[in-house]
Write a structure and sequence with these properties.
Layout (H helix, E strand, L loop, with lengths): L19 H10 L5 H21 L5 E3 L7 H8 L5 H4 L4 H7 L9 E3 L6 E3 L12 H12 L4 E6 L1 H8 L5 H17 L4 E5 L9 H15 L6 E5 L8 H6 L5 E5 L9 E11 L9 H10 L2 E8 L18 H4 L5 H17 L21 H4 L8 H4 L26 H4 L8 H12 L5 E2 L9 H12 L4 H22 L4 E2 L10 H6 L1 E4 L6 E4 L2 E3 L3 E7 L6 H9 L5 E6 L1 H6 L2 E2 L5 H21 L4 E5 L14 H16 L7 E6 L8 H6 L4 E4 L6 H7 L5 E4 L12 H12 L8 E2 L10 H20 L2
Parallel strand pairs: 1-4, 4-5, 5-6, 6-7, 7-8, 8-9, 10-22, 11-16, 15-17, 16-18, 18-19, 19-20, 20-21
Antiparallel strand pairs: 2-3, 12-15, 13-14
Helix pairs in contact: 1-2, 8-9, 11-13, 18-19, 23-24, 27-28
Bound molecules: glutamine (GLN) and zinc ion (ZN).
Length: 763
């Protein structure tokens, strides 16, 4: 068996420590630079990453984890899955990623349970290997003095993502060829990522895994094979891989269990989390490492580090006590290296991971009874050294206040109920008097350059709060006037005060910290800066009320208040792990309930609580899904149940893959549900048609700069009217308008209002 370096990571961030790739991509797309310039930036970023990893003492360096846009798209190119219609484009790669004037891009969706988006491969009649990128990066690293382990998405996951596992035989031909080429290149190990194997897999799919790796294992001259499965436990796929000829397995030992003995295999023990930003407890990690029985045990991360920011360097705005408990990608590499040293020497680690004092949960708080069984801290199940009553590693350094306001577990999941819908609907009708086919928007209006510049100036201290607030008020007034002129029925203030729908609330709630440069790639050049939930969440004062009240003061028409829901706030944050996720979510819900009550008291009669990330946190294994949906729905209802009967609660969801969770969406019990559907058409419509409350399937695809024609919008409205009575149907765009321009928005909304009025008149 070939040996493996003693420490490695499964992948690394690639957007650049200062988002260099983002800027390079955007200037290439704008035509200011050439493809060669872009490639040069990519090469610099790769070189800097390898150098840095080596400098930090990491022994096993990956290659191929860089991508100009997306690793699944790269795999599609590797396998020749470039649909014919893109081949003539000036730059087929980016045509697939982003579309062109005449071509829609490939469909994009979320990568397992993360907020990273990949492009869904579309397979052509045949596969054809194009190994240029994989081999190119191996050679590039070698020229810099580094031997690397190329990382490629594995055949089973690739085909499952493409929805075409039946094409396994064909695609394996390409992988065989690739292995031969890598062997000829002198590559010792190749990593094949198979995250799809940590979800439930049918016997036929497991048989495909067996067949695939038996076949790749029997390629005569090949590198050693490392199959990497992450985001959970391999479960029933583990024995299949254990019995296969693959030489190595990379296991997620943060979320998954220590495996039974794997004689003769190299096991990459993923004990440093790639999904959280907390320091690893070295004692716990070492306990896990020492419990793994295998041919060789290598210290690794649980998954690629692409899901965490680059480095804590420069984050001096964080409270020192918090900062000392954090580890971003660079710091995590340091942990991997140190753990490998401890494992090799048999030395003992320091007993306390961070300088913060140990937490003492409030007496009777649910922490002590539920945290170790929660999906939020599965780490404890993987640790053979910590008894079940020990909290997850992070609690040792957390700041749980003894005065915690968390309710007992029994009330956390009891979904509070409002009056029956019929009662609410009558009260709302009397109070609001809205017409059938009422028109509205999803919340945000275009964010102007002036606004973004002002926000930057405010952060830099060159603009006063008062001047900034005055600008926000002008933007609100503008948005209100535009909506009145266009004739919308329910107005919004336009969200000009928000940089981001989660970050804004994080900045105004206790228990959250925000970073200066903690960017994480969301897709392509898009990054988010997830806030960090490190303590008990509370709302010290109203957050959005002044803006909503101001907007309402400008108009006779109802203005809809706009909040981000509890599940979405936790989904798009890095969450403390010493409390179960459901309890943190519940705390956020309590804080939002206060905001709902205050908006209502301020005279706001319609309040929208967005939950676009409800689907994202759905556990990968079916066994855990019902439980999640129950507490997620309960949290939403906790946030909204304070609304009086006459206050109309709206919710909003994005993404066509909401189909899987429609029963839960119905369970939110919102008076009106708006949902993205302009592109997915009848499928989503059929799914939601059974809802008995208000429904607003999107009739304007806001993702594209195109202004839809009246005929297009009319067709969507007609299709909706076939399934939903006019009295309950709302006419609205798919999502918020903040990425569009005012001229686009005004044209599209004019169409929407015209179509709605015509449809109303025709009834
Ligand atoms: N209210 C938000 C907006 O309009 C909703 C965004 C979202 O669903 N992602 O921008
Ligand atoms: Zn949306």
């Amino acid at each position: 068996m070939p040996t493996f370096p003693s420490s490695t990571v499964l992948g690394y961030p690639r957007i650049g420590p200062d988002r260099e790739l983002k800027r390079a991509l955007e200037s290439y797309w704008a035509g200011r630079t050439t493809r060669a310039d872009l490639e040069a930036t990519g090469a610099e970023l790769r070189a800097a990453t390898w150098r840095r990893l080596a400098e930090l003492g990491l022994e096993g360096l990956p290659s191929g984890t860089f991508s100009l846009y997306d690793q699944v798209l790269d795999t599609a190119v590797l396998l020749g899955a470039v649909p014919e219609r893109y081949q003539e484009a000036e730059d087929p790669y980016f045509a697939m990623a982003r579309g062109t004037d005449g071509l829609a891009p490939l469909r994009m969706t979320k990568w397992f349970d993360t907020n990273y988006h990949y492009l869904v491969p579309e397979l052509g009649p045949a596969f054809k290997l194009d190994s240029a990128k994989v081999l190119g990066e191996v050679r590039e690293a070698r020229a810099l003095g580094f031997e690397t382990r190329p990382v490629v998405l594995g055949p089973v996951t690739f085909l499952l993502l493409a929805g075409a596992l039946e094409r396994l035989e064909e695609v394996l031909g390409c992988y065989e060829e690739l292995l031969a080429e890598l062997a000829a290149e002198g590559v010792a190990w190749v990593q094949l990522d198979e995250p799809a194997l940590v979800a439930d897999r049918s016997p036929a799919e497991l048989e495909a895994v067996r067949a695939a790796y038996d076949r790749l294992g029997s390629v005569p001259a090949r590198p050693a094979l490392l199959v990497a499965a992450y985001f959970g436990d391999l479960g029933e796929a583990l024995p299949v891989l254990a019995a296969s000829p693959v030489e190595g397995l990379a296991l997620d030992l943060v979320r998954g269990a220590v495996p039974p003995e794997l004689p003769g295999k190299v096991v990459l023990a993923g004990v440093v989390s790639g999904r959280e930003v907390w320091r690893t407890d070295p004692a716990r990690a070492l306990g896990v490492l020492r419990a793994v029985r295998a041919g060789q045990v290598v210290v690794s991360t649980s998954c690629s580090l692409q899901h965490v920011p680059y480095s804590l360097a420069g984050e001096d705005g964080l409270a020192p006590g918090l900062r000392a408990r954090l580890a971003f990608a660079e710091e995590k590499v340091g942990e991997v290296v140190e753990l490998a040293r401890l494992l090799a020497t048999g030395d003992n680690p320091p007993t306390v991971p961070g300088p913060a004092p140990a937490a003492s949960p409030a007496p009777g708080s649910p922490t002590s009874t539920t945290s170790t069984t929660s999906a939020a801290s599965p780490a404890s199940t993987a640790s053979p050294t910590s008894p079940a009553s020990t909290a997850s590693p992070i609690s040792a350094a957390s700041t749980v206040s003894p005065a915690s306001t968390v309710s007992p577990a029994s009330t956390v999941d009891g979904a509070p109920a409002r009056s029956p819908y019929a009662v609410r609907a009558a009260a709302q009708e009397a109070h609001l008097g809205l017409p059938p086919l009422a028109t509205t928007t999803i919340g945000s209006f275009p964010q102007t350059g002036e606004l973004r510049a002002a926000r930057a100036a405010l952060a830099a201290g060159t603009l006063t709060d008062a001047d900034y607030d005055a600008l926000v008020e002008r933007e609100i007034e503008h948005a209100i006037r535009v909506q009145e002129r266009l004739g919308l029925d329910v107005l919004v203030h336009g969200e000009p005060e928000r940089n981001d729908m989660v970050q804004y609330f994080a900045e105004h709630l206790d228990g959250f910290a925000v970073t200066r440069n903690g960017w994480v790639q969301s897709y392509g050049s898009r990054c988010t800066r997830p806030p960090i939930i490190h303590g008990d969440v509370a709302r010290p004062r109203p957050i959005t009320v002044r803006w909503a009240r101001y907007a309402q003061s400008l108009t006779e028409r109802p203005v809809k208040g706009m909040l981000t829901g509890p599940v979405t706030i936790v989904a798009w944050s890095f969450v403390r792990t010493d409390l179960p996720l459901r309890e943190v979510t519940h705390q956020v819900a309590e804080a939002l309930a206060g905001e709902v009550a205050d908006l209502q008291d301020a005279g706001i009669s319609i309040i929208q609580v967005d939950e676009p990330a409800l689907r994202e946190l759905l556990p990968l294994r079916a066994a855990a899904q019902q439980d999640y949906l129950a507490w997620a729905v309960a949290a939403y209802r906790r946030a909204t149940a304070v609304a009086a009967d006459r206050t109309q609660i709206h919710t909003h969801l994005c993404y066509s893959d909401a189909d899987q969770i429609l029963a839960a969406v119905d369970g939110l019990d919102a008076d009106v549900t708006t949902i993205e559907s302009a592109r997915s058409g009848a499928r989503i419509l059929d799914g939601v048609a059974g809802f008995t409350r208000g429904l607003g399937p999107g009739v304007y695809d806001i993702h594209s700069p195109r202004v839809p024609s009246e005929a297009e919008v009319e067709a969507l409205v007609e299709a909706a009217l076939e399934r939903v009575p006019a009295g309950r149907l709302w006419i609205n765009p798919d999502c918020g308008l903040k990425t569009r321009t005012y001229p686009q928005v005004e044209a599209a909304l004019t169409t929407l209002v015209t179509v709605a009025r015509r449809a109303r008149a025709g009834r």
